[in-house]
């Protein structure tokens, strides 16, 4: 038997723009993505037998091919012909589920990176990202990680200068968001405002953390149904009142985040937001 444990970091959208609907039914995206230290742990073990067996500390998650971690393993085998006998995948989930932070996609990317190392496949990150693209749109970014521009469906990844190190307070409201419904709303109600993606990239090139933070923007924020939008705005306002350099919503939500230069400011904001949210985290950028 052989085993490896891989970290699967969460991602945030510093910007998220939707440029329009494509002929293939997907949407053309333009996003600046950032990895943070909140992470799942993925343990891969190979041994005698056959098939893929998945388990998780969250009993409600699917444990078959509907789970992106299992789907990634099956896709890797299909694309490369890799053999491992029986593969056991254990997910220790810490990233909130359905939160706009790509927890499932990051687990899938961790499976690809872990099997590549465990089996000695010698695939490059670009090759792994190409396999990941067939599993989910966010998987290529999660293979690469760090600070990056994602375009197309999200699979076209361009590395960017790293975001200057800072603290991040994450707060997940207690309501769900349906990604298909949100895209349908966006198609019927074109957003009035769009992020200054070019300005964010310039600020990254200059190492200007406040310049990045004040340009955080996500087009889905104004598309959210009224009550949900109100809760997101309340959390953003609280983060800003507590000293955040900038605040926004990640992905299709509902997680809200704020950037802080100093740990003590972030910790004070984390404590305050626990009055409003059950799931609040203080993390670092990677």
Features:
globular; alpha+beta; five-stranded mixed β-sheet
Structure description:
By secondary structure, this protein is an alpha+beta fold. It has 9 helices and 10 strands. It has helices spanning 68-80, 103-118, 125-133, 139-144, 179-188, 197-205, 209-213, 226-241, 263-273; strands at 2-21, 27-56, 85-92, 147-152, 156-159, 167-172, 217-218, 246-249, 256-260, 279-284. It has a 5-stranded mixed beta sheet with strand order 5-4-2-1-7. Strands 8-9-6-10 form a 4-stranded antiparallel beta sheet. α1 runs parallel beside α2 (103-118).
Low-confidence stretches: none
The proportion of residues in beta strands is 25-35%
Strand order of the largest sheet: 5-4-2-1-7
The oligomerization state is: single chain
**Count of β-strands:** 10
| Secondary structure: helix percent | 25-40%
Biggest sheet architecture = 5 strands, mixed
Let me know the average pLDDT: 96
Using only C-alpha atoms, the radius of gyration works out to 19 Å
């Amino acid at each position: 038997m052989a085993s490896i444990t891989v970290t699967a970091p969460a991602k945030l959208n510093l910007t998220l723009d939707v440029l329009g609907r494509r002929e293939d039914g997907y949407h053309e995206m333009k996003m600046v993505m950032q990895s943070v230290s909140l992470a799942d742990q993925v343990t891969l073990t190979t041994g005698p037998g056959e098939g893929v067996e998945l388990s998780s500390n969250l009993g409600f998650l699917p444990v078959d091919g509907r789970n992106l971690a299992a789907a990634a393993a099956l896709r890797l085998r299909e694309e490369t012909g890799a053999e491992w006998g029986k593969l056991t995948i254990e997910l220790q989930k810490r990233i909130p589920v359905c939160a706009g932070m790509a927890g499932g996609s990051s687990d899938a990317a961790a499976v690809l990176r872990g099997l590549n190392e465990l089996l000695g496949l010698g695939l490059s990150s670009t090759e792994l990202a190409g396999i990941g693209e067939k599993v989910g749109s966010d998987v290529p970014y999660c293979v690469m990680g760090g600070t990056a521009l994602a375009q197309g469906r999200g699979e076209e990844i361009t590395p960017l200068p790293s975001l200057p190190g800072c603290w991040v307070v994450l707060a997940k409201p207690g309501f769900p968001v349906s990604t298909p419904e949100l895209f349908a709303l966006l198609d019927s109600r074109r957003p009035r405002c769009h992020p200054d993606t070019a300005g964010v990239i310039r600020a990254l090139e200059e190492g200007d953390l406040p310049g990045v933070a004040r340009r955080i923007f996500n087009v889905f924020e104004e598309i959210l149904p009224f009550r949900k939008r109100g809760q997101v705005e309340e959390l953003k306002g609280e983060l800003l009142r507590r000293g955040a350099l900038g605040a926004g919503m990640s992905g299709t939500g509902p997680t809200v985040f704020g950037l802080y230069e100093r740990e003590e400011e972030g910790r004070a904001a984390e404590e305050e937001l626990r009055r409003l949210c059950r799931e609040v985290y203080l993390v670092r950028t990677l």
